[in-house]
Amino acid sequence: MAVQDNQPAALDPAAPMFKPNVSGRYKLDRIFAALAWGATAIAIAVLVWLILTILIDGLGSLDWQFITSFPSRKAERAGILPALVGTLWIMGVVAFVSFPLGVGAGLFLEEFAEDNWFTQLVEINISNLAGVPSIIYGLLGLAAFVRLFESVTNGRTILSGGLTLVLLILPVIIVATREAFRAVPDSLRWAGYALGATKWEVIWNHVLPSALPGIMTGMILALSRAIGETAPLIAIGAAAFIPFLPEGLQSQFTVLPIQIYNWVGRPQAEFHDIAASGIIVLMAVLLTMNGVAVYIRNRFQKTR
Amino acid sequence: MQDTIVMTSTDFAIQAEKVSVSYGSTLAVKDVFLDIPKNNIVALIGPSGCGKSTVLRCFNRMNDLIPGARVEGRITFNGQDIHSKQVDPVQLRRQVGMVFQRPNPFPKSIYENIAFGARINGYQGNMDELVERSLRGAAIWDEVKDKLKESGLSLSGGQQQRLCIARAIAIEPEVILMDEPCSALDPISTLRVEELMQELKQKYTIIIVTHNMQQASRTSDYTAFFNARATEQGGKMGYLVEYNRTEIIFQQPSQQDTQEYVSGRFG
Ligand SMILES: Nc1ncnc2c1ncn2[C@@H]1O[C@H](COP(=O)(O)OP(=O)(O)OP(=O)(O)O)[C@@H](O)[C@H]1O
Ligand SMILES: [Mg+2]
Q1: Is A44 found in the same domain as A96?
Q2: Span from the CA of B53 to the centroid of ligand 1 (angstroms)
Q3: B105 or A266, which is more confident?
Q4: Which of A28, A87, A142, B238 could make an S-S bridge to B50, C-beta 3.0–4.6 Å?
Q5: Residue after which a domain boundary falls, among A40, A58, A76
Q6: Is there a single domain that holds both residue A202 and residue A240?
């Protein structure tokens, strides 16, 4: 070790090569904290404002009678029951069909399909489908479910509406599922294989439970989108006025957003108030649904 | 077993003949010959990146799971070619267990970590007993016996690694591949694992990758020294330098490189 004399200057411990500038870095910290806080505050302020105006307009006319009555030409007698039941039916169809289909497709693409130009093409297309305007899905649903498969769906029914919304949200669920699967570390898969597990055992017992919280987050986003959709259901011809309750998948139906849209469009101010009441009901359904999804998600996160 | 005695192929758990592995177009290890005698501990040593883990993964066909990995040459397990049609990789992995370089318990309860392998392999006996026996076998029972329902991830790194060893021995394999099982362990846990290996040796054949020369010389019966040399393409290619009884590798190796490596005067 006789090279000490001609060591480069960079290694000379006396030379101040580091300027930590701690105060400047802390300042940057604070600036970003303030920016993030501001962004959150704006989002919350808008939300609070929205909710408050809705509550002020709608709480007055929101009562049990409103929830249990059929629509009427007189605002004070009008209720939301068929739309509420219709929304519950539709969301039931959407959840039960889109979950296995979306998760199955995501699972196949991520775990089984070979990574070649074809799967990449499929991947790009699915991502793009998530951005297609919902009215296009409505037209597709009209052509496919209402017309082509009329013998199965019986036309403009809950089944047609639900399946149309399934098409609409499938891309979101597939993309979320793939991301969730991709986030599961390979070491977990290897641990399973090394014990003599088959591919399916590894996926079912280890990968899927680990990915489920991410999948459920995708489901929440997707169902939240589906529950508020109006255009595609109008396109397939959901009725605006239903004086009876849907009795099954092959019944005609209306849903909350359509009912609300219908009331908002009337000239009388009383109808605008019950529209606000309808929005409160819609939000309550949305919150309940997401609450269930969050509960499922947390159950699976706890065991990790 | 003395090396003067001529061994027949039935004395070997695993035999590798001219095994080469490449990832994509780069050759990672070339022409490895390795005979692993039953009920012995064989250590694989060598500098980082020379392909020890790669060779280890050949023995339970774990390289099958790496896209682009290709294994050439002939590997036999109990005399049977593991790449032949008769050998199912899923069943092979049950008989050739593996403990990984980084502890990777399942994100499930400690109990379930052990029970999973047993259940999928159709274990018929009492599960509680098996869990206790395996955890005792891996010298971790006393630390976890009161919290079997807790997540395997709630354990310390060293405990997790022993849980992984327990999980591997629960399905009673014939060979256990250990990839630096002690790299995340403190000296006391390391010693426990080494003692454990001596016990396991009665029933199992153990192949262990280690960077710890003392560990290799203390625990193993045979040692294989791997090295890597630069290739024309600018990459590195691993190869087996020397394989012999551990005393010989450490005291009178035939190769200069081995001598330098085991005495710490390397590179
Ligand atoms: N999954 C993989 N894909 C591509 N190349 C790989 C992969 N795993 C290993 N390699 C390459 O193979 C060579 C040998 O790697 P390997 O992990 O077997 O080395 P090692 O001897 O176990 O090293 P260490 O002691 O650091 O664990 C390295 O050059 C590495 O880059
Ligand atoms: Mg390694």
Answers
A1: no
A2: 7
A3: B105
A4: B238
A5: A58
A6: yes
CA distance A87 to A92: 8
Chain B partners within 8 Å of A184 (Cβ): none
Size of interface A-B (CB pairs under 8 A): 71
Q: What is the pLDDT of residues A18-67, one digit of tens each?
A: 888 889 999 999 999 999 999 999 999 999 999 999 898 888 888 888 88
**What residue has token string 């076998």?**
B137
Per-domain residue ranges of chain B: 12-106+174-262
b/e burial code for range A174-192 (CB count within 10 A of at least 16 → b): bbbbbbbbeebeeebbbbb
Do A99 and A49 share a domain, yes or no? no
C-alpha–C-alpha distance, residues B52 and B239, integer Å: 9
Instruction: Establish if A235 belongs to a structural domain.
Output: yes
Residue A109 lies in a domain: yes
Query: Do residues A250 and A191 share a domain?
Result: yes
Chain B contact present for A210, CB below 8 A: yes
CA distances from A194 to A210, B100, B117, B164 (A): 18, 9, 9, 11
Q: How many domains does chain A have?
A: 2
What is the distance in A from the centroid of ligand 2 to the CA of B3? 28
B104–A187 C-beta distance less than 8 A: yes
Confidence tier at B2 by pLDDT (50, 70, 90):
very low
Q: What is the CA radius of gyration of chain B?
A: 18
The class (CATH top level) of B12-106+174-262 is alpha beta
Same domain for A219 and A73: yes
Instruction: Tell me the pLDDT tens digit for each residue of A90-148.
Output: 999 999 999 999 999 999 999 888 888 998 899 899 989 888 899 999 999 899 888 89
Within a domain: residue A14? Answer: no
Question: Would you say A254 and A83 are in contact if contact means Cβ atoms under 8 Å apart?
Answer: yes
CA distance B48 to B54: 12
Interface confidence (ipTM) of the complex: 0.90
Assign residue A234 the CATH number of its domain: 1.10.3720.10
Q: Would residue A184 count as lying in a domain?
A: yes
One-letter amino acid at A252 equals Q
| Inter-CA distances, A254 with A141, A211, A224, A260, B181, Å | 16, 35, 18, 11, 62
Domain that holds residue A185: 64-302
CB spacing of A201 vs B104 below 8 angstroms: no
**Within this chain, do residues A54 and A197 fall inside the same structural domain, yes or no?**
no
CA-wise closest residue to A260 among A94, A64, A45, A66: A66
Q: Do B106 and A191 touch (CB under 8 A)?
A: yes
Of the partner residues A115, A193, A205, the one whose CB lies closest to the CB of residue B116: A205
